[in-house]
Amino acid sequence: MDTSLREAAREFLIRYGGDTFPNLFRSARGSVVVDDTGREILDFTSGQMCATIGHNHPAIVRAVHEAGEKAYHMFSGMIPEVVAQLARTMAQDWMPAGLTKSIFINTGSESNEVALRMAKMYTGGFEVLAVGGSWHGVTGGVSATSFASDRKGYGVHVPGVYVMPEPNTYRPYIKGLEGEASALACLEIGLKMYDMASTGRRAAIIIEPVISAGGVLVPPASYMRTLRKAADDRGMLLIFDEAQTAFGRIAERHASDFFGVVPDIMTVSKTMGGGLPLAATVTTPRIEADVHAKGFTYYTSHVSDPLPAMVGLAVLETIRKEHLLERARTTGAYMRQRFLELQSRYEQIGDVRGLGMLLGVELVKDRESREPYHQLGALTTQKCFQLGLSMNIRRRPERGSVWRIAPPLTTTHDEIDRGIEILDRALRESLDEIARSHAAASAAHNVLSA
Ligand SMILES: Cc1ncc(COP(=O)(O)O)c(C=O)c1O
């Protein structure tokens, strides 16, 4: 191990938020990443929720090589053949009926910027209604619509953004209401508040169909249908941000298929590039023609670049050839079953939720109070890493302590078993450690007060 590199990371990198591991990392393949000591770690987050077909899948490696033989980048006014091919594949095989026009850019944030710019130009309005706990990215326009990220310290957000309470059926905002009723009540109240505040210049409603950073919340289908109607009634466009849910993660093509609700604009990103920066905004020919006539631009250095498009095609082809939607269904059911077993042994696992290979596991002090157990979440996550499992935990005082479990769709049952074994041990050891520290603290207290 080259310790000077850890030193260099500390000295020369800007810290960009979130927890970073003390180790550096060297390589990644399939469901495993390797750190700077050569240690293998199971990756239950697919990198940053991107590597759904596994890290460095041979098809991606081949695509990058092929792009190297042909072209990585071109003048944005030259549409590469492979970009036309990807647009056709998306329209014919992957998108809901009607959504046939795509633009290819690089990040999820960008895909949502495109969507909001289109919605504003199409409607002539500017108001955007978003959902609590959402994460649509960090760039100027979309950070205003993100409520799971830190909003403080960056000055004035884009005006005209309104927020509704998220449909958290485990931790309902409205006491006494459970499940679907609580989700629909949140929507009803959210819409009423919005209508009260609106200036009438409405543009869009934006939602992650599974609110991931907000705690992997899956709204009931009736919520999505009501949201569709709410957008139509108000002349607003409905935007589904499917950064995490598209292309197999939830064992469907996307959440639009799962809910049976078609948005006006769908954005896709993370899971499309399999780890390379590729994103798309997809809409109907009518909306595209309308905004084009009004002078729509989203001209960037890397719009329509051939390298990521080549990779995107390889990812979509791999999902089809390796039957990864079906695999996500069976492996996802197996993974959920293993977590439910763990839940039956640990009072502190309050809820296991999610779809397919995207699970949220919420930690609580006890199931009765549902009080979030942040200390246990942090300690167990740390121990898991030491034992060879990387997981992501979302900890917000107001929203609980939730593990986001999203391994590659190619993860084997053996790897899931290994992950569960590590988690089991980490949970046991963390609970013992917390109990010991409480016992020591109360002994010290008794001595002082004696
Ligand atoms: C649902 C969702 N939308 C958008 C984004 C932003 O994507 P990016 O980080 O690629 O800009 C994320 C990133 O976590 C996300 O989870």
Descriptive account of the structure:
Helix content is 44%, strand content 16%. With 450 residues, it is α/β, with parallel strands linked by helices. It has 2 domains: 3-55 and 327-441, Alpha-Beta Complex (Aspartate Aminotransferase, domain 1), CATH 3.90.1150; 58-321, Aspartate Aminotransferase, domain 2 (3-Layer(aba) Sandwich), CATH 3.40.640. The strands form 3 sheets. Strands 4-10-9-8-7-5-6 form a 7-stranded mixed beta sheet, with helices on both faces. α3 runs antiparallel to α12. It is globular. Bound molecules: pyridoxal-5'-phosphate.
List the helices and strands and how they pair.
Blueprint: H1 3-12, E1 25-29, E2 32-35, E3 40-43, H2 46-49, H3 58-70, H4 81-94, E4 101-105, H5 108-123, E5 127-131, H6 140-143, E6 161-164, H7 179-197, E7 202-207, H8 221-233, E8 237-241, H9 255-259, E9 265-268, H10 270-273, E10 279-283, H11 285-293, H12 306-321, H13 324-345, E11 349-355, E12 358-363, H14 374-387, E13 389-390, E14 392-396, E15 400-405, H15 413-449
Parallel strand pairs: 3-13, 5-6, 5-7, 7-8, 8-9
Antiparallel strand pairs: 1-2, 2-3, 4-10, 9-10, 11-12, 12-15, 14-15
Helix pairs in contact: 3-12, 4-12, 7-8, 13-15, 14-15
Overall residue-averaged pLDDT value: 96
Q: How widely separated are the two ends?
A: 52 Å
Question: How many DSSP H or I helices?
Answer: 15
Q: Largest sheet, order of strands side by side?
A: 4-10-9-8-7-5-6
Name the helicity range. Answer: 40-55%
Tell me the strand percentage band: 15-25%
Ligands bound to this protein structure: pyridoxal-5'-phosphate
Overall tally of domains: 2
How would you describe the shape?
Answer: globular
Question: In CATH, what is the class of the largest domain?
Answer: Alpha Beta
Structural class: alpha/beta
CATH topology grouping of the largest domain:
Aspartate Aminotransferase, domain 2
Q: Which regions have little confidence, pLDDT < 50, spanning 5+ residues?
A: none
